[in-house]
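Example for tutorial group B:
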């Protein structure tokens, strides 16, 4: 009788040796003349336990981790195929404190199913949203998404229903659905985990969007640094068969530019041109890809849609606080003890994520600052760790939740150096189209260098430059670069003296 063993094929697990562990399990089973069926699933997001190996037993799935190649013979000797006791034995991983307190919606199948199997996806509740959508009128689908309160999870937090209604109401012979999977922010990996661990959820969300606005063509724009995600998407689409009907999806590999995370620069890249920001108006919802009405959302936004259609708008809007409805996968990275993915409804606090889930700093020293929302996000001091995870709450303190990436720093960090990094990042990644971003970031690096060398009288000049970038840049690349710089000046002024 064959035993099913799950070994993650997620990029984080691969970096920690998952491929070698899978090969070692296969080799050891062959040596012992035991039959194993190895399934390469996604990661559950407890990265300090990767590679996390799970075995299907009569008692359910039993986890062991972190497993190395050297551990494999000892695991077999301990009868791990039957859930035998071993030093790495974790039991049912879903009862782990890191997971049991979460409320996963968009990533609830990641780590559980075979990402390349449509049958496995459907068996675990997938596909119900698409079935429901096919029985509804387009306007009713859009209304359901609107009533759910879903906002774009890519960072801008624009109401998804309004964007979809604009495309629905714009007449055109051809419309498009585009998924922005150019996840380039530091400390973010939820898009990658979804694409590698549950690609059909994204595909289903895009197909529902197509039904909602009258589009039969979709594109997934994936950054070139995500080859495993691209492979998983290609395999899922190849295995989808007739499930999608007449809705076609094409995966496009990005050209390696951070600014292509901006929606109009992404459209330029898909069309075969250099990825630079377009002037707006017109909005992409009216004149987007190839000049046609286009729905553009990120991975987690589309991945939230199937449950909204399957369980109803009231289910989703019942989660969260204020105008921030539903859940958001928060990603813990940097100097944090338990780095990984935490999906919870809006309303928790930053402190809960950092300590109840993250366990504080990896170094054991006090956490001094965290950057939320990628390299353009504000640096928050310990005095703001009790801020509620809510779009408006973060906006009120001059910060942004963005894509939900959280990077932690202990008390050894030099915040003036971090401010310089933010300016240098903008100088490196600017598309160059507008002067405030292109020139302002370069001048900003020079001014910060002079300040760090002792010229503190130039701090007002740095603030003035940031004001110009904020109000004069064409897109968020230059407009948000001042966030980390000004927050560092505001909360960590001693590092600039």
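The residue assignment follows.
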């Amino acid at each position: 009788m064959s035993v099913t063993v799950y070994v993650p094929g997620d990029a984080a697990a691969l970096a920690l040796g998952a491929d070698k562990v899978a090969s070692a399990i296969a080799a050891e089973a062959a040596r012992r003349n035991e039959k194993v069926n190895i399934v390469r699933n996604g990661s559950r997001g407890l990265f300090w336990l990767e590679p996390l190996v799970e075995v299907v037993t009569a008692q359910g799935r039993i986890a062991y981790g972190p497993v190395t190649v050297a551990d494999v013979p000892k695991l077999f000797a301990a009868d791990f195929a039957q859930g035998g006791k071993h030093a790495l034995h974790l039991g049912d991983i879903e009862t782990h404190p890191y997971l049991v307190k979460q409320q996963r919606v968009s990533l609830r199948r990641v780590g559980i199913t075979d990402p390349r199997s449509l049958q496995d996806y459907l068996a675990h509740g997938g596909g119900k949203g698409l079935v429901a959508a096919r029985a509804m009128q387009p306007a009713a689908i859009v209304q359901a998404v609107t009533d759910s309160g879903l906002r774009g999870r890519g960072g801008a937090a624009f109401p998804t229903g309004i964007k979809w209604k604009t495309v629905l109401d714009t007449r055109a012979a051809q419309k498009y659905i585009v998924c922005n999977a150019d996840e380039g922010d530091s400390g973010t990996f939820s898009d990658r985990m979804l694409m590698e661990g549950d690609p059909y959820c994204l595909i289903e969300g895009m197909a529902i969007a197509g039904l909602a606005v009258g589009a039969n063509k979709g594109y997934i724009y994936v950054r070139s640094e995500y080859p495993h995600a691209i492979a998983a998407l290609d395999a899922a689409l190849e295995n989808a068969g007739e499930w999608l009907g007449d809705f076609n999806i094409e995966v496009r590999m990005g050209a390696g530019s951070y600014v292509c995370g901006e929606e109009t620069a992404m459209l330029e890249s898909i069309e075969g041109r250099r990825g630079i920001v377009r002037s707006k108006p017109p909005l992409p919802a009216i004149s987007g890809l190839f000049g046609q009405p286009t729905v553009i959302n990120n991975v987690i936004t589309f991945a939230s849609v199937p449950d909204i259609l399957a369980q109803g708008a009231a289910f989703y809007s019942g989660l969260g606080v204020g105008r921030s409805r539903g859940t958001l996968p928060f990603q813990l990275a940097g100097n944090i003890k338990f780095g990984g993915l935490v999906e919870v409804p809006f309303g928790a606090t930053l402190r809960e994520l950092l300590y109840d889930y993250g366990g504080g700093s990896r170094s054991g020293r006090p956490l001094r600052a965290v950057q939320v929302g990628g390299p353009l996000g504000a640096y928050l001091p310990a005095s703001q760790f009790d801020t509620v995870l809510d779009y408006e709450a973060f906006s009120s303190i001059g910060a942004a939740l963005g894509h939900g990436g959280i990077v932690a720093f202990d008390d050894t960090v030099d915040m003036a150096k971090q401010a310089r990094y933010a300016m240098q990042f903008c100088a490196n990644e600017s598309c160059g189209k507008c002067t405030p971003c292109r020139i302002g970031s370069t001048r900003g690096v020079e001014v910060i260098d002079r300040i760090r060398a002792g010229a503190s009288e130039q701090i007002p000049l740095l603030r003035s430059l940031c004001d110009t970038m904020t109000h004069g840049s064409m897109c968020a690349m230059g407009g948000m670069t001042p966030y980390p710089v000004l927050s560092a000046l505001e909360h960590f002024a001693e590092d600039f003296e």
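The longest strand covers residues 327-334. Compare this with the pattern of hydrophobic and polar residues in the output above.
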